[in-house]
Records
---
Amino acid sequence: MCNVIQRRGVDNGQRKSKNNEEQDEIENNSRRSFTFVYHLQTETSKIQVCKTFFLNTLCISAQTVRTVFNKMNSAGYIKEDQRGKACKNSMLDESVKQSVRNHIMLFETIDSHYCRQKTERKYLPPTLNVCKMYALYEEFCLDNNIERRATESMYRHIFTTEFNISFFLPKKDLCDVCHSYENSLTDEKLRMEQAYQQHIENKNLARSLKNADKEKAKANPSFCAAVFDYQQVLPAPKTEVGVTYYKLKLSTFKFTVFNLASKEAFCYMWHECVGKRGSSEIGSGLTLFIEHHVRKGIKEFSFFSDNCPGQNKNKFLFSLYIYLAQKYSIKICHTFLERGHTHNEGDSVHSVIEKVARNIPVYTPDQWFSLVRASKRKNSYVVVEMSQQSIFDLKKLTEVASINWDKKDTNDKVYWSEIKIVKTDPEEPNIIFYKNSYKDENEFKKICILKRGRKSIGVNINEIHL
């Protein structure tokens, strides 16, 4: 382009004027120091053209012309384009990249209660972000005498491209069925319509059952309706001090049972040296909850929870229901809320505790216990500190008491993932009643779990510990 653009100074010989006086006036008043003359090159000569013709022919803008002119030297040559000459991340010293990797790997990850147990993604505490991590990286470089350090953009690039790590954000479970339906095209929605409508009907029926039992519990002093769930793992220490992000934390667990009628929240808490986070711990907490309310005259229990097979919907918990029903002559019913719509009144307990703990440093599990007790002034939460002696191994109870969990009384196969409601009755020991629907007109089916030759579960659960 430099060959077809020429700079020409303004001189009197190129301007047409009527007289010398008018010409002198132009020289004195003009603020233009130069002008552009545009040419297009042919095989034999250059043809002068107007600016518009020149720009439209080459499909360029006036700014391109000005840029070329500004970068042109006195000899008429343009200096080499500097784009792409910057030092890229891929061209940086490998030791700089490795320092970033080493620093990121120092952070201890946490488990997400809302994700699949076998997920490969790891999670960092929600109090962290990339900006905070980079600030800690700068301190890390100073402490380790690392002279060459990465920029924040390079740190972020390595974090997002080389590590499968996210920052954990507590949130309510999202419904994959509703999400898929709402984001589908018209044809796909038509194919999904029947299943989606059934899903919505199940959601509404499950909520109606919960609300009905809630009102029944308020009117009937011998009936108890409750929801239960785990809260996310509570780490100790929990503080903003940078060095604690690199340390392995002691996990504290909290299992919450919320009485729908009295609005009492029972928080059963322990740390990972006492127990884990499975069905045995849930069963142990429910045992204490049931025993506490049996002493108050409760004869019938109705529980509501999510569908987690490893914690709630399994033979270990159902064996416990049969045992407790026989021991205390009580009825137990357990309704599993529709998948994706399991949020309930117990979530408010978790929300309050997370809000209180947001700006309070916690260093030990005992401090977590105290924080939960003090998190609500009115109707404070009941905190039960679980010991290893109070956590029972439900697997041993199942091994001793039962053998059949696969076939119902008609010898047909039982599909546990389809079960919506289970219940036990002390008048019919060793029987699990279940339904695959929330509708009242559907009859309960039966599973006899007892080993051949046994008449009842003759096991003392207090003798079975972890």
---
Amino acid sequence: MSTLSIKIGAVLDGSFNAAIKGSSGQLSSLGENIRRLDSSLKSVSKFKQLGSDILASKKSWKGFEDQVKSLAKQIKAVEKPSKTLKAEFDKAKASATKAKVSYLKKRDSLHSLNEEVRKSGTNIKSLVRDQNKLGSSLEMLRSKYSKLGSVISQQQSISAKKAHYRSQVIGMIGSLLSVAVPIKIAVDFESAMANFKAVVRFSLDKETNNKMIMELGQELKKLSREIPISASELAEIATSGGRLKFSKDEITQFTKAVAKMAVNFGMTGEEIGSATATLSNIYGIMPEKIEDLGDTLNHLASNTTVDAKDMMSAMTVAGGAAKQFGLDVHQTAGLTFTHKYKKASKIANSYI
């Protein structure tokens, strides 16, 4: 499920990532160009404003200077100038001084701005001359910036929606799997039990027979939670036991013992059930003795390089002949082991 989710996520995700990265780079570049043009236009505007202010300040200063000169002539023309005339002269002189200071300050500011722009590698006069072009370029860049920003927003919106849909799809698949897997398990088990029912008949009474089979089915489900093997495989093993005409309790005992062998030997329920049923039929092994056979095979396999699955296959072939020679199933297991590997074995000899 996690692997499937990752694959689906990889397919549904990332289709816009490269586009968004590229667009973001363009947006950043446009933004930088806009900032530079905007800074240039601000410098031009500031330069023009300072120039205008300087002219106004100079005009004001010269106006007060002319007024001072006019009042000075009037004072010289009379023997005793009036207090009012003197006051007007003093006021005009103070205003002229103040206007001059203002003019000089603004002139210095203009020189400083011009020097600052010059150091940045730009000529203020050329900026002033090209102001209209700069304004047009700035507006064009701002328009592109706005459109590109809109495109990126749309891409991000679509990407967010895709991520949302992806999570929904993954969630839906997870939900379907969570439902489908138990359904398949149930169907497989019911199919295996149908095969069992076709082979085994516990009672001539149909109702009683169905009830006993249902009870066995419940026992197999319970057993599947104790032994790591599916309920459907347990039903296949039970079917093998049913062919031997065992009772319901004997089938349960047979199934439990054979299921343990299946886990230990790495065999499927059908393989181990069929092989064990064959040996049980040849040697007349009852369910309570099945575990002894499992212990024998497990002992041989665990202490050598013999594969228990191969041994069981060989025993089902040689079992009939070995029985005629008077060998029991444990001796047959040891003999099969010795013959298979063409060498004497202390482990095998102990069972012959």
---
Amino acid sequence: MSKLAFELAYKRAKKEKTLDGFREVKKSRSYNIIKREYQDKWRPKIFKRDGHKCMNCQEEYHLQLCHITTANAFKRLNGYLEVSIPASFRDDNLITLCFVCHKVQHNADKGILFSQSAKNRAKSIRKLFNEIKQKRGCSTAREII
């Protein structure tokens, strides 16, 4: 959605007093803009820390930055733009995963796993994330903040 289209739709929703959905869209747009800045800053740092390989399967290609406690968990908190985005990008909440492991991890969160190898990979990722959460002493977004 272009900025102009968003602003027109926002004004229309304001006039019709249906802003609740637009507040979420506006938050989401702001989050994505800020997230991009944080990712550009933290991605090289976390990749270097993790030895430029997937921390689950040791793959060295198609690496992605992944939140251990999900970004969506932080987005649900009040005042999330000011407090939660920086908290979601803490070193101990980020990990390097390859594209496949990252995709499996997100699908596992949604309960979508088709093959046995995906289920095994998801189990391995879950174990890795639980170990990290236990080591850092907190697991939820609220506990991190």
---
Amino acid sequence: MKILTSTVLLLALLGLFSGPAFADEPSARAAMIDATHALLVSAKSLSLTRPVFTLDQPDVTVKTWKLSRQRDRLLLTLSAPLTRPASLSITGLAPDSEAARTFPLQPAVWPASRDRLVWVWENQQSLLPAKTTSVAKAVPARLRGAGDTLFDADGRLQLSAGEATAADGRAALRACRWRNQFTLECLYTPTTAPVDVRLVRLGERMMLRRAGPQVCWEMPGQDGLATFTCHTITKADPLHLLISVDKAQVTCYVNGQQTLAAPRPAGVSPWAGDALALGTPVGEALAPLGTLEGVALYTRALTAEEAKLAAAASVARLAQRVPVVVETKQVIVMAELVAFTAVPTPESILPYRHALVTQEYVVREVVTGAKAGVVPGEHLRVARWGILASKPTAVAEQKVGQRYRLVLESFKDHPDLDRQFTVDELPENFDLLYLLEVTRL
């Protein structure tokens, strides 16, 4: 048995701790909003003096440009579709009009189709406009909700943080109602826990939701609420969901594959209310429920082939994104116990009344939060309370091969535990991250 009394000091000397990484928000960003239009958005007023636009692709040039009345958006029209990543250089753009400003551009791969697309929201950081039919009024789509805590570092809606609504959702729903058919598309990254959560609500009577392990579509019928089960969740991988409703049928697609086709409920109009809402109202969610992004609404039913193309476009969109990692104080994971230190008897640690024991886990799922090195598949050394107030905790009953929910923080953030009685029977491995499980069982 090894007794560690200065774990933090030893690990710190080995340089195993690094500070949180915070992302800086650029003052100006540019992105393709369709095949031939790029939008530049600035937090500061833009000013152009004899601007020169250069793309590093000889077959594509900037044909025209237009500055918004508020001078915060610059719309560029290209001479040909952008089909591969490019670099856009602009000279004559204030504040430093003499130097060239360079912006990376990725081809617009999502949504796959814009035919009768009436509303779209990629994420809260995207420059993609909600209304893609009028690039001249290109304003990045934004949801309304209770502050920035609704969204994670990548702009995805955190489903446990509250409900968000679309400012211009009323017109989109009215267009769907007028045609009496629609398709709803979204990308849902779930948790494996069997939770209940709303994903998307169309008015007051239709909803895409998670019910335990199942993803369901709900709409009214003659005999009450009709529920269509689209998918059963077994892992935390992103799910591209597409619900297509025409005048006769409801069809569900998951990752481009049809999972359900059933007659559309008759007898009751599904249209009531005009709120296009995403997420779960505050107070209904008690645990992390996953994230939502890439939401689109069409006033027509999509075909099976179009569903495959939509799923492929969603995958391509994710491949383009460079994740923004902002470390949080806590990270919650589902992890499998792979090696343990036996909890000693309370008598053996006298005169101490509390003791930490070191366990080793492999991360299976990051539920919420972010911390360098804490990713699925990585092994962690975790200090856990084995004895509290001279009594063994539930840690003593944990078994190798079982999964447990861990609430982890950096051990260095708890200097008061530097001299805490700690028992570690595991082989030395200073290559593994050492964290503290803060729950007192």
